[in-house]
Amino acid sequence: MNLFDVYPLYNVTPVSAKGSQVIDDKVQEYLDFYGGHAVISIGHSHPHYVRRIKEQLDKIAFYSNAVQNPLQGELAEKLVQLSNCTDYNLFLCNSGAEANENALKLASFYTNKSRVIAFNNGFHGRTSAAVAATDNTAINAPINKQQKVTFLAFNDIEAFTIEIEKDDVCAVILEAVQGVGGLDEPTTEFYQKIEALCKKHNVVLIADEVQSGYGRTGEFFAYQHHNIKPDIVTIAKGMGNGFPVGGVLIQEKIKASYGMLGTTFGGNHLACVACLAVLEVIEQEDLIRNAAKMNSYFLQKAATIPQIKKVKGRGLMLGLQFDFEVGELRKKLIYNQFVFTGGAKDKTLLRILPALNITTALIDVFFDALQAELKEL
């Protein structure tokens, strides 16, 4: 049987990894400044993370949500402690798409409405409602296009007001820093105005923090830069440092009922321990502060390279803007300099998503590699 061929793959086969280093089957070492789409938050094979998972494997790896699992409660409490999201409840699932799917479903239950307002270049996943709210027609099948979604531009409050006043909207979903779309952000003024309009019209405001959450932008959640409070927050990626996990933080005003949501694997014992280990390392190593500190150093280095036209993003969720498409540059960085980076919907943007515990020395290595390839272009 062949694999269903949906991924254009680089000719690299990782077999081990530690920290920000990935090693392939030819024993070549790579600097990982992409983290598998912002998944590796505390570095590959962090010793505390490995130890916690190994210890749990010796106890119990999985049972479904038909029985008590105190680890879920421990995770919820630790999440409150670090994020300061004090009046939310937690639903655990398996991915960012599943988190957003459940968030949109909850919004529709809560309002008894069905239209969604999303934003140009937003990405929220590949499942039914989540992909419908994603601004990419190429990955929306006819079955997805049955969903009622209106796409708007960031910061156009007039257009937003017109749409929300039609009184058929269940949810507004947005990324405070867009990932795949290219690191665009709403202004604080716009985010605060849409929060107020959502409250006025009883519309659920969903903060998609799947990529930007867990300290990546220098706050625990990216929306916290804007002094707003969403009704629902979705999380995944850096949450498990590679273990498949997702979650939905739900304001207490949205009431649960048995069977309303459900998952077989979500919140299993191994997943909870992986998530707890990540939060413990973030706390113990002060990684949110480090993300902000490394951002300052990164910006200083970027400012010395004239080919970089703009640096987008916050913390360690960054994009380098050039005046040419970066696909070839990414290949050269991988095959000549042995550095992993990311692309975006904006083909002129090189995405940078390293682990939150990177150092100035590793940033120096990255910029040395980048400059070496820019000289050859």
Automatic annotation (TrEMBL):
CDD domains: OAT_like. Signal peptide: none annotated. One of its GO terms (molecular function) is N2-acetyl-L-ornithine:2-oxoglutarate 5-aminotransferase activity. This is Acetylornithine transaminase. It comes from the Bacteria. It comes from Cellulophaga lytica (strain ATCC 23178 / DSM 7489 / JCM 8516 / NBRC 14961 / NCIMB 1423 / VKM B-1433 / Cy l20). Its EC number is 2.6.1.11. Its cofactor is pyridoxal 5'-phosphate. Keywords: Aminotransferase, Pyridoxal phosphate, Transferase. It is an enzyme of class 2 (transferase). The keyword Transferase applies. InterPro entries: Aminotrans_3 (IPR005814), Aminotrans_3_PPA_site (IPR049704), Class-III_PLP-dep_AT (IPR050103), PyrdxlP-dep_Trfase (IPR015424), PyrdxlP-dep_Trfase_major (IPR015421), PyrdxlP-dep_Trfase_small (IPR015422).
